[in-house]
Amino acid sequence: MKGVLWMRTFKKFLSAALSAAVVSMTAIPMPFAASAATQASGSYNYGEALQKAIMFYEFQRSGPVAPDQRNNWRGDSGMSDGSDVGLDLTGGYYDAGDHVKFNLPMSYTAAMLAWDVYENKDALASRGQLSYIKTAIKWATDYLIKCHPSPNVFYYQVGDGSLDHAWWGPAEVMQMKRPAFKVDTSSPGSTVSAEAAAALAAAAVVFEDSDPSYAANCLSHAKDLFNFADSTKSDAGYTAASGYYNSFSGFYDELSWAAVWLYIATGDSDYLDKAESYVDKWNRQGQSDIIEYKYTQCWDDVHYGAQLLLARITGKSIYKESVERNLDWWTTGYDGDRVTYTPKGLAWLQQWGPLRYATTAAFLADVYANSGLCSAEKANTYKAFAKQQVDYALGSSGRSYVIGFGTNYPKNPHHRTAESSWADSMQIPGYCRHLLVGALVGGPDQGDSYDDSCANYTQTEVACDYNAGLVCALTSLYRDYGGSPIEGLNAIETPTNNEFFVEASVNSAGSNFEEIKALIYNESGWPARMGDKLSFKYFIDISELVKAGYSAKDVTIKTNYNAGATVSGLYPWDEAHNIYYVNVDFTGTKIYPGGQSVYRKEVQFRMSYPENVNVWDNSNDFSYEGISTTPGSSPVLALNIPVYDDGVKIFGNEPGSSGVKDASITPTTATFDLNPQNQADISVAVNANGKTLKGIYYGTTALVKGTDYTVSSDGKTVTISKSFLSTLDQGTANLKFDFDAGADPVLTVTITDTTPVVSAEISPTTATFDLNPEKQADIPVSVTYNGKTLKGIYNGTTALAEGTDYTVSSDGDTITILKSYLATLDEGTANLRFDFDSGTDPVLKVTITDSTPVVDSEISPTTATFDLNAENQADIPVEVTYNGNTLNGIYNGSTALVKGTDYTVSSDGTVTILKSYLSKQPVGTLNLIFDFNKGTDPILAITVVNTSPIVIGDLKLQMFNSNTQSTTNGIMPRFRLVNTGDTAVDLSTVKIRYYFTEDGTQSQNFWCDWSSVGSSNVTSTFVKMDNPVDGADTYLEIGFTSGAGQIAPGASVEVQARFSKADWSDYNQADDYSFNPTDNSYVDWTKATLYIDGKLEWGMEP
Questions:
Q1: 709-711 and 566-574: which strand pairing?
Q2: Which of 291, 258, 290 is CA-nearest to residue 274?
Q3: Alpha-carbon distance 217 to 209, whole Å?
Q4: What does the DSSP 8-state code read for residue 267?
Q5: What was the pLDDT predicted at 454?
Q6: pLDDT tens per residue, range 934-987
Q7: By C-alpha distance, which of 947, 785, 802, 806 is closest to 866?
Q8: Residue 559: beta bridge partners?
């Protein structure tokens, strides 16, 4: 997009608009499943939609064309990427409707697609889509591996956004510079490196079974990239994407996201610990301590995905509550707020790409609903939401937003290569030349209005990250509701215009000359391609000159205007019939579909007979036929001026030696159905035009005459045998008719297969199993084989054991899933796939419940006291009665205590809260929640006291606040140091600390308004506390330069300080530890501390 792509990244800057968009509800609506929009069946072919949504990534490819490409309008592109840094950085995906390769959204895309495979591998495999989505993942990860040439170097972007967006044309003919940008240890980029680590780790999981060596390579790079991101923890070097893909969420969410996938890939608990260690660093909602929930998973903020995976892995309440808070906000509402809904039911987050957010939220909702971590009521709500949002994208509002799917889908996406303008203009050709199959556009406005205009980028642009969530959500619905992908789907198009051609007119004429004005055009698009070896021939008949006694060498050729061609003299074509041509060769001149001055080139050339030989006759000139003959008129399409690319004719007609044209066939396209009931020979009418058919070829393989095809006795009909056609695979077969001369016509045959597949069936398809020992029962399943053979039963990728986990009756008609197996499963949903040798595998969806009465766990004691006085500090042992439950962890609010560091668990189950942890807590009441997997969590209430004496040294600190308002944008402490001892103190050894809470993330500014030792001799620094406490997460440390001198016995020094946030936003200083709300003159103040040579000499630290 031109210059304004950056707007879609301004997530944080849209917060005010988002707040306005959030519905403030005095009464939250009825449960989501009850809405009319959700009750609508919305019956769509989810299989077809999924298939097309995956195909979209083939159109976004950069690099060389792959053999598996299913379209004819994408070609090699970006082939010199990385050459500026001496690397091969070809490959990867173009980001959106532009051609920059931004690795942050690309890595996000790959990770999401891999997550889809992780969740729904069987559904993807059931109708052939698994290989396509794995190819889509690998196209990205192959490139990411190239971008990582050494452990601490990562090339995170290829292409300059400004240069790229200044041009509107197809990727295949880009001419702008495409620099590569990197991060390294001196200029790190933790966000983009960690996201790439997540993508590669997730890919390792996906490819572990099918390609273990590739999976190992992905995992090795993922580990190195994670270590690089984790050790640097900085985005200082991530600058080239600024204005396009800024990391507003910071890098801690990506570090958690990557660490979770590394844990899944390796089973190494260190990665799980890492993932959880950064949870406290995730963004919070507003000024609260609640993890942010009013958004969803996206390229900028991946904590939403990380917390869902952590919830499922650990079962901890902190993650479950945060996931449900987010999903409730998207569905029924949370705390009186809910995301905006359009009148027709789209959960509308913001104006730029609302559908990407809604469909991604739909995927998360479905995954969590199937996790068994929430109530059945919530699961139903979340799944209904997922279906409603995907159905909206597919057409429930009256129009589809997925190109090439459903009715009234978008026709004019904001996409350079799809529109394929040859003139660097959105207005030319005035329509989109290519169908961007499967692309999800940004979506409607808040009122369901959509303007299908290429220039309307906020609504019509597409992007790799847009489709990622859509693919994931569609797979879930395909798994649950089925659908039929289109057999042999491809995007082979028929060109809508001549790609290469000449327009010509008579510039001027006389009785012995003719001057031609000709323009050669490159409007290629199937695919767009460079024309630097183009030429054309202008044919004339000089019979009248020969009759007058002259020859071709008497004809002179001169150019009047020439934009880069070499114009020849007359060359013979059919010398016996006096047919000659002028060769106009533009070799070395770049003619390409990239702008007004480069997609066409003009030449004006004059052909003259000798002076006074006034016999010029145009009427017999082959190339004169059809051009504009009025001198000075506008050039018109010239079919008889053929165009050549490196000597091969690509457009127009040539005169034959006897004026005979090329052979031709009718039809040139046909369809063959592999269904035995529909198979039929294909008859082709042949107009040989004097040529001889030498054979027919499929690629380099010659068809056998008499076996694969027959020729009628008159030679006018060729019949392609169905016995040959039935050996071909689904897709497209090009059969070349090889004649002895001229251009060889091609018959393009689309091979389909409508053979019906009758799959095996089971009954029932749903069941419930209760883990309560008193209610456990086997589940019998009736099987209708329909000629299929049962190979096994799978729960995910794990095969059930016949005889142990299930039995088959002697007649085979009943399969019994044994309660002994079912009792090993966790609460939630288990999808048992019956694996047959062909057809669609039926699935038994078993809902696992547990009505077993829960006995709460107990602790003793439930109250305790801890003294911060170092002489009295002691661990607190807690006896635990587990009652069959499992301790997940211990929490202080939403912060998890670290096992082994903050507490220990003995072999008999006794928990000991360590004094090393307790000594860091503030005075007051500390409530530690013992988080068990079931039942009510008991709480240990610890009263934290401090009997330590306050330090009172010889150097006294007095203080008051000159501004005592609770809410203020400037905090103004006044300090006075009084030396009550008998020895002078060097002020350069003195530090004063004032403790407060930042109330935000803005940087702080300090001023010394006045000091008795001179303001220039006062220093300051702001320090974030490693262990924040109530009333203090930061302190201002004031010091003195050597120029401040000494404070003599009995003397005093004053400092009048002031500090504010960089954006002048307010503090709430009422709860700050060092704040003095009452005094307006100096008093002894022990809540600000004073140090000499680093030793506490006055006051008490918080």
A1: unpaired
A2: 258
A3: 14
A4: -
A5: 94
A6: 889 999 999 998 887 777 889 999 999 999 998 999 999 999 999 999 999 999
A7: 947
A8: 605
Task: Give me the residues paired with residue 849 across strands.
Answer: 770
- Decide if 796 contacts 829 (C-beta within 8 A): no
Strand-pair partners of 549: none
For position 661, what pLDDT does the model report?
A: 66
Residues 6+ apart with CB under 8 A from 220: none
CA angle (1019 as vertex; 1013, 1023 as ends), nearest 5? 145
Closest-CA residue to 45 (of 359, 484, 417, 350)? 484
Core vs surface per residue 589-608: b (16+ CB within 10 A) or e = bbbbbbbeebbbbebbbbbb
Give the CA angle between residues 437, 441, 446 to the nearest 5°: 150
**What's the token pair of residue 153?**
């170097």
The residues that are catalytic are: 98, 414, 452, 461
User: Residue 32 is which amino acid?
Assistant: F
Sequence-ordered strand ranges (E) for 241-350? 337-338, 340-341, 347-348
636: nearest Cα among 506, 516, 522, 505: 505
The encoded tokens of residue 629 equal: 């003959």
Per-residue buried b or exposed e for 610-645, using 16+ beta carbons within 10 Å of the residue's own CB: eeebeebbeeebbbbbebbeeeeeebeebbbbbbbb
For 370-429, write each residue's pLDDT tens digit. Answer: 999 999 999 999 999 999 999 999 999 999 999 999 999 999 999 999 999 999 999 999
What are the tens digits of pLDDT across the range 309-357?
Answer: 999 999 999 999 999 999 999 999 999 999 999 999 999 999 999 999 9
Cis peptide before 667 (omega within 30 of 0): yes
Nearest to 144 by CA among 88, 196, 79: 196
φ and ψ at residue 643, rounded to 5 degrees: -110, 145
How far from the centroid of its chain's Cα atoms is residue 986's Cα? Answer: 60
Q: Give the C-alpha distances (Å, rounded to integers) separating 497 from 532, 576, 635, 665, 757.
A: 20, 36, 17, 21, 40
Contact residues for 700 (Cβ-Cβ < 8 A; gap 6+): none
Residue 43 has a pLDDT of 66
- Spatial separation of the C-alpha atoms in residues 720 and 670, rounded to whole Å: 11
Helices (H), 60-128: 103-126
Sequence-distant (≥ 6) Cβ neighbours of residue 1058 within 8 angstroms: 970, 971, 972, 1006, 1007, 1008, 1009
Identify the pLDDT of residue 997: 95
Residue 535 contacts residue 582 (beta carbons within 8 Å) = no
Whether the CA torsion 288, 293, 298, 304 is positive or negative: it is positive
Residue that has been written with the tokens 């190992």 in this structure: 216
What residues form DSSP beta bridges with 591?
A: 531
For residue 1034, the model assigns a pLDDT of: 96
Say which amino acid occupies 125.
A
Low-confidence ranges of the chain (pLDDT < 50): 1-42, 657-660
pTM recorded for the entire structure: 0.62
